[in-house]
Amino acid sequence: MAKDRIFSAVQPTGDLHVGNYLGAIKNWVKLQNSGKYDCFFCVVDYHSLTGDMDAKKRHSQVFKTVAELLALGIDPEKSTFFIQSEVPEHTELAWIFNTVTPMSELLRMTQFKDKSGDQKKNINVGLFDYPVLQSADILLYKATHVPVGQDQVQHVELTRDIARWFNNRYEDFFPEAKAKLTEFPKVMSLLNPEKKMSKSYGDAHVINLSDSPEIIEKKIKKAVTDSGKGKAPGAENLMMLLKSFADKGTFKQFVEAGKKGEVRYGDLKKAVSDSISLYFNDFREKREGFLVDEVKTRKIMSTGAEKARLVAIETMDRVRKIVGVR
Ligand code: ADP
Question: What is the Cα–Cα distance from 103 to 12, expressed in whole angstroms?
């Protein structure tokens, strides 16, 4: 029997951070290594055109994101790993999906509301339409499972709707995809723990996986904790980070102290930064390796795109016939 298919992606809008890792990428590696799924992972550079980044920066950021994902354990022998713009069928399918998607449904997307608030001077049509391109990314491979963070669940639901709208209008062709969440699907910002950790709020809000131990310590020292008894969102976020990155004994020690109301935030912060630094030690080294060996890294990506295109071409051949353009 064919394995269930997974698709997920990340935008090359900045260095990967702990939110991306705990919400999605850690899960990608786990699902890939389970051997139970046929995995497709992608760096979605066309999506990043909806933001303000300049072309030169984008070009280098795509490469950095690729190097970081490889260093985290995305294995091109086990997964199909590629860059979106190297498979032009993504944008072609997005156009077809545009024509079955009601505008009123896109207006409901909370990410559009958030993102247009963040870039008030550049509310472009692409920003409005990006969930449709995202649906095309997923359905081009007829993926049924989409490992993402909480913020993307609404878009995966839209993907299901788009499959249904297409199937009802033409014929039953696309499967219905489901989001797959992790234990911590929403990592909060260090400085504003009411909001998700996101690179769009600024560097001090996020811990990048490539941050040096000194920077991690500095950022976590400034994290908002609140003065409650470990129940406040900032402190909860730090406990969640500790659970994810520290050894079980250390975590348990802080849980016990929390029950007695004896957690000293200075100690908690030190434990969190030490554990994160240690956890990504190996990653930092591997990342350098992939960045330095640019020719090899780029070859991995072109091979990945060739593999992805085999599936993409087959889907689009069928879709063009189904909608009556060929
Ligand atoms: P965007 O910035 O448009 O949300 P990204 O490309 O940065 O998208 O996100 C890549 C993945 O990381 C997505 O699956 C997203 O849900 C997840 N993610 C991003 N931020 C967080 C966060 N703070 N907590 C958990 N998951 C997150």
Answer: 27
Q: Is residue 209 within 8 Å of residue 239, measured between CB atoms?
A: no
User: Taking a C-beta distance cutoff of 8 angstroms, is the pair 290, 67 a contact?
Assistant: yes
Q: What is the mean pLDDT of residues 95-104?
A: 98
Contacts of 178 (CB under 8 A, 6+ apart): 144, 145, 146, 156, 160
Q: Enter the tokens of residue 149.
A: 């963070």
Structure token digits, residue 81: 């790993």
Question: Atom 15 (ligand 1): residue with closest C-alpha?
Answer: 149
Q: Is the CB of 6 under 6 A from ligand 1?
A: no
Distance between CA atoms of residues 44 and 56, nearest Å: 16
Cβ–ligand 1 contact at 186 (below 6 Å)? yes
CATH topology (fold) of 4-186+294-323: Rossmann fold (3.40.50)
Summarize the chain as % helix, strand, coil (round to 5). Answer: 60, 10, 30
| 55-94 tens-digit pLDDT | 999 999 999 999 999 999 999 999 999 999 999 999 999 9
Q: Could you name the CATH architecture of 199-283? A: Orthogonal Bundle (1.10)
Q: What mean pLDDT do residues 201-227 have?
A: 94
Please give the structure tokens belonging to residue 38. Answer: 């046929």
Domain ranges of the chain: 4-186+294-323, 199-283
86 CB less than 6 Å from ligand 1? no
Q: Does the active-site annotation cover 199? A: yes
